Amino acid sequence: MKLCRFELRSQPGPIRSGLVYDSRYYETDGERAIGIHEPGAVTLLPPIGVAPSLRLFDVAWQVNGGYSISFDYLNPSAYAGPAATVEMPESTTGMDFEIRVAGVVHEGGRSITHDEAPSFILGYGILVSLFDPEAVETARVENRATTPARDLGGFFGPFLVTPDELSESVMEGDPTRFRWTVEAHVNGENVMEDSAHEDHVSFSDLIHVASATTAVNPSDLLAWPAIRKPRLDSTAFGRLLAPEDEIRVTIEPLGTLVGRIG
Questions:
Q1: pTM passes above 0.70
Q2: Angstrom distance (rounded) from CA 165 to CA 93
């Protein structure tokens, strides 16, 4: 299923929830459909409310071929939904973005094993995370934390795709490891394309690491390591993000997420 939250354009304000099927939005009351809406009648919101926490994971590869997994906490309330606008901070002269797939935790727990982890997953969506590349590089040179330069908000959506919808993308041997097809455009300019991206780290790995030191909670967002993308000013786009730019990221089979810079 593709779960969603939305407002009706004719009745803005009340938040409605449901699922997407055959390009239509089926509003539900939690148990049954109570309305069917055409795409032009709705404004999509983030597929979940503000998450209790957002963890962005990274992988450090070792000489022997092994790896270690770490994560940063970022501000989940700074992430907007599809077609929303995120303001660029006045202190930032240009922004870039990371493309990640994020999963939503279905129930809470601590010290979750890899075998237990699949039962904790509600679904997956696209996470576009904004950052200041110059500030990140300066922080690294000065041996300071890069988190403030990466905590500029972003976008999450367009839907929350449940695991049963992703069976054709599952990698052999692990139901929480996937192959994605990824494209990214800025103002219509193609800046990245990967037709066979594989996540070496499974979502079970992320849940296991996240719950080892503190509990994960319902609606927590856990984001895979960023999908490889060149720095934006080294692509055909030729510069960093500025106000009025539009980002469009497609990850199949999760959908297309559009966000704008204000």
A1: yes
A2: 40
